[in-house]
């Protein structure tokens, strides 16, 4: 009869017999030296397979004996408290039996999930599948606010860190002073501690002020400017129109150093005070000439009167007097003449006032009068000779070729010498008079002519500067003049 038509009890009995037969067969095939180990029934976990195995089952149905090696490994693992590394297998279901599915135990309890809302769908339709993948942020405007927000958070964190560092620094300083005060109170008493701390703070402040003063020394030019401003403000001079020197306007025009010089002179010179109060009166020939005239009044107090009258006197067609007298007393037989002398300073030469551009004709007039003893030629006359000879230049004074030409006309000799000490001292010792063409330095910013008149007892050079009474009163080292000179011109009688 087929198994499909057998009852359950009959199928069970037939299965037990087949199992017992296999086990008996295997037992006969095993050597007698092997020890049989009890083998659990594979269907022991099945609720319907709890009956004992029949002894009369055929050998082919008997259970297979385990191998000694596997048994030894399993026994060692059981002694160590573990298992054989395999999960227990579920029993094989018998034909026609329903075996419930068993899930392996999980290591942790699953998290409870929130119930999903049930969507209402029409009958016969399926609910759409929902994707659980996170959606990427959209490009464009939706991404920029996130980036901006992240940058703002970073900036806020940085500021918070800086604030915390500053707070900790002040806290540390406060703790230091608190501890110092407490120690001082314990040792000296409260009153003495307060006096000591006050003294320490005062000393600290004095040290800070001293260090700051040493680290940032005062600008001498600005210091002079402040003192000059105080001096001119305290002066008793006043103008009829009520005008006063404007320091800011003068500084913008002349610079701090020249402004300080002009204000300092104005504090003790009424003419210079008027000049400093009326800088706009000197713009006839441009801002360059304006600046030079204002500087002349500030640096040469003797020229302040000339500069004050300049707006009303310039330009003159001819001089107002001759050169029969020197502008000032000379240390030698060389007369001292100035190009800004009122007798000829208001005339025009080299496109502007003779007072600023007539240094070469004035220097040659001093040489001519010293060597010939004549006073018939003034600086103005020498300027006319230069103009007629084509040696007058526009805004640049006089060409040096004028010295050779004029010397020949007036009975003098002129020798050109390179600037070196012997070429200065030897001619002066021989009684010659020299004109020195100087460059930037103590005498000028561009170019200028001065007269070397002789040597004093110390071997220093006596000069007549046609532009500066102050420099003419000094004597000069040979090395200083040589270092600032472009060329020497030695004159003597022909």
The residue-averaged pLDDT reads: 80
> What's the story with the biggest beta sheet?
6 strands, antiparallel
Report the CATH topology name of the largest domain.
Cathepsin B, Chain A
The tally of strands reads 9
Q: What is the architecture of the largest domain at the second tier of CATH?
A: Alpha-Beta Complex
Write the element-wise H/E pattern from the N-terminal end onward: HEHHHHHHHHHEEHHHHEHEEEHEHE
Low-confidence stretches: 40-61, 80-86, 121-128, 130-134, 136-146
CATH C-level class of the largest domain: Alpha Beta
Count of discrete domains: 4
Distance between the termini: 169 Å
Helix-strand category: alpha+beta
Note the total helix count.
17
User: How helix-rich are the residues, as a percent range?
Assistant: 40-55%
CATH homologous superfamily placement of the largest domain: Cysteine proteinases
